[in-house]
Each structure stands twice: as C-alpha cells, then as structure tokens.
C-alpha cells in the first residue's frame, strides 16, 4: 500500500517520503485519507504517534491547491487544536508539503502567549487557519477573518479540548461555523464530550478507530541505574560524554532543576537547553526546534511537553527524576520508539526512588533491571 493508492498525487506522495519520512502509510492514514478525499465527515480515534496529522494535512492541501485563490478575509479550512506547540507542529507539516503543490496554499498558525497584531496582519489571504480556541475568539472579535465560506473543519485532540477547559470557547466557535462543511475530528479517546461535538455539528461521521497501545513498550529498551543524589549529575555527564548517549530528552520534575541541570551540562561543554513553563513561548519554540534539527544534544524538560509533540527519530529519553504517576512515566518514555522506530529509556534511581519505581514497573507490566554504578569512575565528570 502506498500514499498514491490512497488517492494522493504522486508529487504529494514523494514530498511525504522526502520531507516527513513516511514511506508507507500507517493504519490510521490508510483508513482515513480516502474517506477525507471523498468529502466524508470523519472521526478518527488514534493515539499520539500514530501519524494522524498527515491524515488531514495531505487531503486538505490536495483539495485546496485546485481551487482558485482570491486574497480575502475568508478562511477555507479551520483546524482547532488545544496547545500552541501542536499548532506550530501542524503548520510545519503543511509547510513541508508545499513544494509538491500546483500553487502555494497560504497557511497560518495563531495562538496565545505572543502578540496578536502580527497574526492579525498576516491573516488576510490565509486559506488554512490553525488555531487555539482562545486566540481564535480574540481574532474573531477583531473581525480579522470570516468563517462564512468555511469548507473544512478539523478538530484535533478533541477530547483534550474539554480536559483543558475549552468547553465554552468551543461552543462559541462551533455556533459561528456554517452548517454546510466537511468535518474531521481526531481524538485519543471516545467520550461524552466528543459525542457532544458530533451532536452540535449535526454529523454522522465515518468512524476510524486504531486500537493500539499508546506506547509500544517492546520498541523501547529500558535501563535503570542506581545512583545517589551526589553522583546523579556526574553519572548523567558520564553517560553523555562516554558516547552512550548521542541525543536525549531529559525529564526533570521542576523548572528549577531543569535550569540548574542545563547550567551544569554547559559548564561541562555539553550543548544543552531547557524547555518548561517559565520560559517564554518564543524560547520554548526555538529550543524545541534546535533540538529537532539536531543542533542541540540535550533538551531538559519538565512534563510540559505533553502528548502530540513528535520529535523525529529521538533515540533516547532519560528520567533524571521520576514522575509522580506511572502513566506519566509511560508518556515520557513514549517520546522514543515511535512510528516503527526503536529507542532507549534510561532512569536514574536513588534509594528513595526504589519503592516508587517498583510501582511504575508493576503498572506498566515490564520489569526493568537496575544496574549498579559503584564501579564507574566518575572522576572528572
């Protein structure tokens, strides 16, 4: 099965392989892309890392590139997302496929945490708008665009919209959307709130459900090392400098620890950056992008990087500090070993962590060997 078999153009299929790394479609893509190309309303149930973004990006570009372009305030496609990071990531997927089109399709992501004025200026002539609910309503109140001629509505991570408290905003937005349009919903789970969206939109969509474990634990090699508080930092630097770690996402439990760890790594000539809630939106985006491009060896993060952020081919995740819940542990290590790739997850365990780590192993159904570090010479690290 190829992307051309699903109905995408040869040019788009080549760009998907060249710029996004998808050679063959994943199950969610195989099931949903033909239905979306046929103009059907679609509801996709799939976990993060399943390739769902491409399910709507490629068909929308293929359809809109053949439409005439008139610069106006009328948006043709609206994509609603719960977070700024996801908005930017989706915009980057659209940009990655532009070279395959007959003409450029103007796409823009808008989100809070940054000045509204540049977004307002750039909106004129935008055909595909990716937005978080709050910023979209701000721009609607400024009459920066119109939804009167909307043809396509996509709601990504529909379940999370309500978890994050966007219920009232969603009600306002959906009331402003014309009745006649194609609706595409993606969600990690089916629940009452997602059913409410379907009822509000008055749609009976084709339901595409990919039942799979959110994280393929068999694709992740898990290792734990017994350390104490004094040797934890030096041992991390030993792992990095002894070439056992080429590039890694390192998780910590607080912003303070993140900043302190980055400083220590930099002092030891290791290129590291941090991403957490106390960083400005611009700094977070820049640091994440530098890491994705491979310009930064170590990205130290709190659990701010939620589901939906995909770092292509991430080889290693390190738990410098364990998360509170076993589920968060699985989400963390699930940043590696995604989309048919293998990965490594390393946890640094102190005496105080041992009981909690046993609970984590029991909940995920996997035993992780804890190796001693007593014989490792950490002098100079």
TrEMBL record:
One of its GO terms (molecular function) is ATP binding. GO terms for cellular component: cytosol. Keywords: ATP-binding, Helicase, Hydrolase, Nucleotide-binding. Pfam families: DEAD (PF00270), Helicase_C (PF00271). Signal peptide: none annotated. A motif (Q motif) lies at residues 1-30. Coiled coil: none annotated. Residues 1-30 form the DEAD-box RNA helicase Q domain. Residues 219-379 form the Helicase C-terminal domain. The keyword Nucleotide-binding applies. Residues 33-208 form the Helicase ATP-binding domain. PROSITE patterns: DEAD_ATP_HELICASE, HELICASE_ATP_BIND_1, HELICASE_CTER, Q_MOTIF. InterPro entries: DEAD/DEAH_box_helicase_dom, DEAD/DEAH_RhlB, DEAD_box_RNA_helicase, Helicase_ATP-bd, Helicase_C-like, P-loop_NTPase, RNA-helicase_DEAD-box_CS, RNA_helicase_DEAD_Q_motif. Belongs to the DEAD box helicase family. This is ATP-dependent RNA helicase RhlE. It comes from Algoriella xinjiangensis.
């Amino acid at each position: 099965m190829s992307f051309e078999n699903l109905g995408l153009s040869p040019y788009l299929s080549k760009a998907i392989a060249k710029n996004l790394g998808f050679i063959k479609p994943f199950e969610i893509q195989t099931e949903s892309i033909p239905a979306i190309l046929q103009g059907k309303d679609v509801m996709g149930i799939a976990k993060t890392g399943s390739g769902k973004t491409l399910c709507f990006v490629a068909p929308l570009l293929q359809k809109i590139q053949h439409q005439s372009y008139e610069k106006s305030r009328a948006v043709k496609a609206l994509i609603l997302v719960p977070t700024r990071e996801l908005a930017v990531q989706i915009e980057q997927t659209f940009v990655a496929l532009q070279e395959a089109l007959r003409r450029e399709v103007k796409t823009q992501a808008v989100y809070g945490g940054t000045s509204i004025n540049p977004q307002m200026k750039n909106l004129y002539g935008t055909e595909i708008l990716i937005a978080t609910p709050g910023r979209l309503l701000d721009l609607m109140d400024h009459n920066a665009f119109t939804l009167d001629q909307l043809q396509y509505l996509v709601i990504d991570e529909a379940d999370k919209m309500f978890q994050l408290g966007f219920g009232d905003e969603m009600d306002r937005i959906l009331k402003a959307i014309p009745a006649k349009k194609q609706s595409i919903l993606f969600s990690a789970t089916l629940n009452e709130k997602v059913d409410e969206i379907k009822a509000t939109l008055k749609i009976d969509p084709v339901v595409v459900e990919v039942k799979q474990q959110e994280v393929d634990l068999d694709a992740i090699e898990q290792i734990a090392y017994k350390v104490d508080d004094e040797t934890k930092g030096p041992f991390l630097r030993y792992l990095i400098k002894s070439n056992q770690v080429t590039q890694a996402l390192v998780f910590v439990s607080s912003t303070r620890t993140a900043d302190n760890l980055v400083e220590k790594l930099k002092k030891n000539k290791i290129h590291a950056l941090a991403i957490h809630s106390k960083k400005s939106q611009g700094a977070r985006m820049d640091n994440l992008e530098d890491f994705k491009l491979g310009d930064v060896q170590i990205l130290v993060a709190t659990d701010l990087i939620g589901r939906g952020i995909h770092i292509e081919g991430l080889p290693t995740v390190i738990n410098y500090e364990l998360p509170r819940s076993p589920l968060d542990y699985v989400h963390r290590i699930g940043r590696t070993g995604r989309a048919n790739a293998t990965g490594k997850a390393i946890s640094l365990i102190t005496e105080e962590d041992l009981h909690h780590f046993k609970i984590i192993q029991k909940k995920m159904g996997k035993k992780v060997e804890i190796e001693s570090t007593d014989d490792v010479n950490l002098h100079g690290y």
